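Inputs:
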Amino acid sequence: MAAVAAAETAGSLRSAKLREALVGYGFVLVPMVVFAFFFIYPIVYAVYISFHDWGILGKEASVGLANYRFLIEDDLFWRAIRRTIYYTVGVVPAQMALGLFLAVIVHSGLRGRTFFRAAYYFPSLASSAAITAIAIYILNADGLLNAALGLNQPWFNDSDTALESIMGLNAWTTSGTMMLFYLAPLQAIPTDVYEAAAIDGAGRWRTFWKITFPLLKPGHFFVAVVSVIGALKVFDQAFIVSGGAGGPAYSTLTGVLYLYQIAIQDVDFGYGATVGVALFVLIFTVTAIQRLLFGKAEVT
Amino acid sequence: MSNRRLTFGAALTAVLFVVAIAGAGAGQARPDGKAPAASEVSGNLIFAHWSSSPVETDLLKQVIAGFEKKYPNINVRRRALDPYAESMLAQFAARKPPDVFYVDSNVAPDWIRQRLIEPLNGYVNRYGFRTKPFYPRLLSAFQSGGETYGFPKDWSPLGMQTNNEMLSKGGVRAPQNWNDLRTAAQRLRSTNAVPGGRPICLSPGWDRLLAFVYQNNGAFLSTDKKKAVVNSAANNQTASFYLGLIQGGLAGTPAQLGVGWCGEALGKEKAAIIFEGNWVVPFMATDFPNVRYTNNAMIRNKSQGNLAFTVSYSIARDSKQKAAAWTLLTYLTGKEGMTTWTSKGLALPSRTDVKAVPGRQAFLQAAPHARPWQFAPGFAKVMTVAGNELTAALEGKQSIDVMLNKIQTEAQRTLKRGR
Amino acid sequence: MATGRETPPPYVAAVEELATGAPVAAGGEPSRPVPGRPRAERIRQVVVYTLLIGIALLFFTPFFWSVSTSLKSLQESVQGFDLLPDDPDLSAYRDALTSFNFGRYMLNSAIIAVSVTLFNLVLASIGGYAFARLRFPGREVLFMLVLATLMIPDQLRLVPVFLTLIDFPLTGWNLIGTYQGFVLINLVTATNLFLMRQYFLTIPKDYEEAAKLDGAGYFKTYWKVMLPLAGPALAAVTILQFQGTWNEFFWALIILQDEAKYPLTVGISTFVGVYNTQWPELMAASVLAILPVAAIFVVFQRYFVAGVAAAGVKG
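Outputs:
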C-alpha cells in the first residue's frame, strides 16, 4: 500500500517536473527564436566567413586559419583591444556609482523627488546632437572647462585626453539609464529588513553598506554586465570625435571602430568577421567571469 | 516611261539617303550624343544618394523632376541613405541594390574591385555618349583597367581663402608659394593681425597635406599604383614644412583654435589663411555672411599640386533596369542635368561645357593638375595608420622619418596583399 | 509581509535628515530639529539641496540649450554659447514642421515605438519569469546565450540580418521596407529579459508558494502574482524601450528604407550637414521629438514611487 503510494508520488513528482520544464521552454520560446534568427545566426555566419576571403558578393576563397594568424600579428587590433579595455575599466565604475547615487537620492523621501527624477534622467532623453554640441562647447580649446581651470587643452583632440573625455561624457549621458536600472531593484527591498536592522541598533550609513548594498546584488550584476558589455562595444562617440579614424594617434581606436574600418571602409568581410568574432570572444569571456564571480549570490 | 520611274526612284532614294545622313548627323551634333528616345525606355528606378544639406536635396529633386518630364515613362524613386556605406553594402550583399547611386572617388577602387559597379564602355559605344567634355583627371578616378565605371557628377579642389581685413592690416598679399606663405604668416603674427587666433589654419590630415605633397613633387603611390613611395625625401620636406608651421605657432589646427574645421576658423576670424574647397563658399554665406574673404588659387611649390574631391554616378551590376539607369545617368551627368545641379554653386561642374557660377575661377584653374583623392583597393586601413601616425608626429611623439616609414610599411604590405 | 513603504529604510532617513535637518528615527516620523544647533542644521540642509539642485540643473542643460538654440537665427547659434537668444522667434519651429512630413514621421515613430514596447513587455516579462523561477534543463546555458546576444556589435550583424529579412527563411517574405521587419528584429531584447529576470529573483518565494497552494498554474501565477508585483521593472522596460526605439536611427534607416515609413530621427537628420548644419531647425525638431518620450517618462515614473502594490495573494 505504502509502496504504491510512494510510487504514485514519485510518478506525479516526475510529471510535475516535466510539466514545469515544458512550461519553461514554452515561456522562453519566442525570445529564443528571435535571438536565434537575429543574433545567433549572424555570429555563426561570422565564424563561417572568418575562414574565408569574403567579398561583398560572397565567397572568394577558403583560407582556413590565415585570417586568425593575421589577427594575432595585427598591431592595430591589439592596440584597439587595449584602448577598449582601458575605456571599460574607466567608465564602468563611474557609470555604476553615478547611477546608484542618483537612484538612492531619487528613491529617498526627499522633497521634490519627482523633479530630481526627471532632471537626472533628462540627458538620456536629449538628442545626441544636443549632447555632442554641449560637450564640444564645454570641452573646446576655449570652452567652459578650460576657462574654469585656466588651461588651453583641446580635450577631444589630444591623444592624452580624447578617450578620457569620451569616458566622462558617456558616464554622464548613461547615468539616467543606470539610475532607472537601480531604481527597480531598490523598490523591491522589503522594509522589515530595515526595521530589524534598526532594532539591532545599526546606524544609517552602515545599514546602507551592510544591508541595502548587498541586497542589491541582482541589480549590481545586471548593471555591471550591461555596463561592461556596452563599454566593450563603444563606437559612436569614438567615431564622431575622430571622424572614423580612431585618432588622434590611435587614442580613440576602439575594437568596434576597428571592425567598422575593416568591414565597411575596406569592405573586407572575411577579416572583418575575424575581428568581430575575436571581439565577441573577449566580451563573452569577460561576462562569463562576471557570472562566475556573482553566481553564488544569485537567489534561485 | 520606265526611265522616268527609274530616275524618280533613284532621286527619291538619294533624297532619303541624304535625309537619313543629315538626321544622323543632327544626332551627333547634340551635346550628349544619342540618348535613348523617351519612348524607348521605361522602368522604375531606385536612385540612392547621401544628403549633405537640405539645399542640396532640394536641388537634386529639381534635377530629377526635369528628368522625369523628359522621360515620362521612367519613374525615379529617390532614397537618401544614412549611413550611406553600410546601407549600400547591405543591399549589395543581398543582390538588391539601388539602380543608380553615388560613388565617392575614395571608395571607387574597392567597389570596382568587388564587382559591384556596371562597366560602361559598352553603353558609351552603343549610344555614342560623348565623354570628352569631362575633365580627364576626374573621369580617370572612375576608370580602371581601361574600363569606365561612372561619370563624375561634380568636384572641388582645394583653394586658399584669405581674410581681406587681416591681410591688409598685416600689409600682406595672398601668398603664391611656400616661402610666401611662411613670410606672410610671420608678418601677420608680428603685426597681431589675427588677435585670439593664428595666421593660418591647417587641418592635421592627409586630405589636405597630400596637396602639399604633390606640390613638392612627392606622392604616396607610384603612377602605376604598384609601389608605395611614401618615405621619400620630398615627403619628409613637405611634412616638416607643414607640421613646422603648426609647431612654430604660425599655424593652428582647428582643435587648437577651438573650432570644428578650418572653415569655421575663417568664419570666427581665428585664422587669416585657410585651405578649403568650394564647400566653404555656401557655408560662409549662410553662417558667417559678414566676414569678407577672398578665394585664391591654391599655392604651389616646385610644381602645382592639388587634390580633386569628386563623386560619380554609377550603375549597379545587379541592377535589373540598366537601360533606364543609363538614361538617368547620362541625363544627370549630361549638360542639362549638370547645369541645374551646379546652378547654385554648391559644387563645381565636372564638364568643360557647363559654366560654373561666377567667382569660382580660383578653384577651376586647378582642373589640369588636381589629382583625385583616392588610392588603391584596401587602402582604408593604410589611411587610418597614416592619419594616426601624422597626429602622433604632430604631438611630438615621434619623428617625421619614423612616421613616413610606418606608413610606407603599411602601404607596401597592402599593395603586396593584392587587396 | 508587506512591501509598502510605511517606514523608510535608515539610509533613506540619513538623506532625509541631511535635507531637512531633522534626525529620523527608524519607524518614526521626522522630529523637530535638534535643539541647540538649529543654524548648523539649516546650513547642512541648504548645502545638500543646493548640491542636488545644482546637479539637476546641470543635467537639464542640454534641454535648455536645445530650446535656446531653436529660438535663435543660424548666425547667432554658431557664434557661441549664450543661453539667452537675442531676438527669439519661432521660425525654426515653422521650418522644422514643414521641411519634411513631420506628422507622418512622428506617426511612424509612434507605430514602431509602441509596438516594440508592447511586445517587449509581454515577452521579456514572461521569459524573465521562466529564467528566474522555472526549472528546465539547459536553463543556464540558454541564459548565457541570451546574454551573448548583447555581445555582438551591430556592424557584424548588419549583413546577415539584412539577408535574413530580405528573404525570410521558410516563408520567403521580403521584410525590408516594412514596419514588420523592424519590429521583428526588436521583438524582445536581452536587456529587457535580463532586467525582468533579475527583478523576479528578488521577489520572495512566499508569493508563488501561496499561489501554488491555491492551485494556480504557472501562467496564472505569472499573470496574477508576478506581473502585478513587477511594477517598477515593467515601468523601467516601458520607459527605456519606448525611448530606445523612438531614438533609433541605424536599424530604422537600414530596414525601413521607404520615405513614407521613416521615423522622426531620419527627418531630424536632414538638418545635419557635413559642413552646413542647420542648428536652429535641428534643435527645434529635437525639442518637438522629445515631448512624447518625456510624456511617457512622466506617466510611468510614478511606478517608481511608493512601492509595489502587493496585497498578497487572495485566496
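Remarks. The CA atoms of residues 208 and 216 of chain C lie 9 Å apart. Chain C touches chain B through 27 residues (CB under 8 Å).
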